[in-house]
Every structure is written in C-alpha cells, then in structure tokens.
Amino acid sequence: MPRSLIDAVPFSAPRDADLEALVATLGAALAPDAFELVLLCPSSGRRFRRRLAGGRDSGLRLAPASRNGGLPNGNVLTVPFGEEGGWRGRLYLVRRRFRPWTGAESMRFSLLAPLACQLLTRLAEAPVARCAQERLLALAEATEAPAMILDRGGTILYANGAAEELLSREAEEGPTVLSGDRRAIPLVPHLLQLAGREAPATERIALTDGRCLEARIVDCPGDGTSVAPPARIVLLKERAAPTIDDVRPHLAARGVSDREAEVVSGVLRGLRNSEIAGELFISEYTVKDHLKHAFRKLSVASRGELLRGLHAVPGRPPARVA
Length: 322
What we know:
By secondary structure, the chain is an alpha+beta fold. Helices cover 40% and strands 22% of the residues. Strands 1, 2, 3, 4, 5 and 6 form a 6-stranded antiparallel sheet that branches. The protein has a 5-stranded antiparallel sheet with strand order 8-7-13-12-11. A two-stranded antiparallel ribbon has the order 9-10.
C-alpha cells in the first residue's frame, strides 16, 4: 500500500505563534488556569499532549494511555477540532476544582468555541498540507515528463524542469500544434486552452513536426479558500511516433492506395507538401490530391486529425515517456 502523506505532526514546533495567539485570546476572555492540547494521530492512533500554564509551554509530547481518555483533572471546558480521516484533538481550558466556571463564563465560552474549533482545525491541517505539497512538487520535479500547475484563469503557477525547458523553447522556435481547423498554433497556448475547459480531459496533440503528445488535465478542487484555490495539473508525455509500417494495415483496410500511403508516410515524418513532392518526384498539386483522397477515406479533415487518428491505431507500440 502507498505510504500516507499524513505524517507531519501539527503543533510540534517549539514555538507556535498561531497557537499562542489563540490561547492568549481565550485566556484574556475566560482566564483558565491552564490549557491542555491533546492530539490523536489518524494513522497510528497515538496520542500527543501539550500543556500551557503560567507562561510555560511543555511542548508536544507522546501521551501515555489514560483510563479517563486523557481528560485533565479539574473543571474543564472542551473545544473539539479536526475532521474525519485527519488529525483530531481537543483543547481543554482547565481550572482548579475550587474555582468553577460561572454561568456567564460558560455562556462566553459557548460563543467563542465554534471559532476556536475552526481555527484549530485549520492550524492542524496546515503542516499536513505543506508536507503533501512538498512531496508532490518533489515528485513532479523528479519526473522527466513536463508537468505544470495552472489556475482556472490560465496562469502557470508551477512548472517542473522539463516543462520549463519546453516553455523556454516555446519562446524561440518551440513545437506547434496542428489544430482541427488546419491552423498551426503554439503548444503552450493550446495547453492553456485545454486547461481552461469546463471539464478535465485527456487529449492527443499532433505537432507539426510529426510527433504526438498526450496531455492529461487533472482537476484539483482546492479547499474553498484563497490559500488553496482550485487549480489544474497538466501532465504531458510523448507517444511513440508511428511508422508507415505500423499503420499500413489500417490504411489498407480503409482503401488507402499505396501511393496515398507514401504521402501519408511523409505527413507522419513531419514533411511539408513540397518536401513530400520532391521525395516522391511528383508535383505538389498531386500531393494535395492524394492527401485529399486519404482524408476522405480515413474520415478526417486535416493533418492534425490524421495524425491524431494514426497515433491512436490499435496494436501500435506502447508510448514512451518524454
């Protein structure tokens, strides 16, 4: 089984400014004698305890098993926090037995507890989210395939080394895409357009140099806050370029003649019509005519559609990772 990402322990830093600020606010409003924080690890079930009293902080420590479930002695008000499947815990506001909570203080606590619960839940999730982010970015950086993270507006938030190289080439003479309407457009704007679609998708992209890329768009919904907004991951891999021998049975089954197949072979290798004509010792007009007939037999309308269709022919060699 894959290892859980949830191994970063919340509130484990020697000084936690956010926790101290929350404790100071509750202390000013309710004046407990001490605060005690108890955490439950979601994967191991181990308990951790941290006590703050009289300006002293014990730090987070592994707590031994307790018959009373870890409930402190004395008069206690409790703030439960956390979500199912993640770190959960309780913040106890403790008073000595001879100093009970008054009705007014209990009422004040009932007003403050929901906000404290939200803040503690968010603080407990933060190190786990940072741990997951660091590992995922390290994984993306380690792969040789281009990987990018974009927001819904098409802004690139992150690009690994392979994607950075692709973007730098794009600024000079990078790869261009054969679109369905027979226009050649730069690769990156095409990827941004894909990422901006309503639903994520996997799409084969035919390049003008005869190569074919497979772009996978993965949706990242975020957490509903400005800290982690929705985003999309774009993963690219290059598919093994088909040769004419790979697709010849497919062409023959659809009535493509040998001469038309030779012209299609030139398209697969990224040749222009003039280059195909020179290689086959025919006119450029004849090349266009053969392509027109091949398009009709294969039910495609452009070079881009032709390449996408031939890259998807069953029985071809497996794709190689770029």
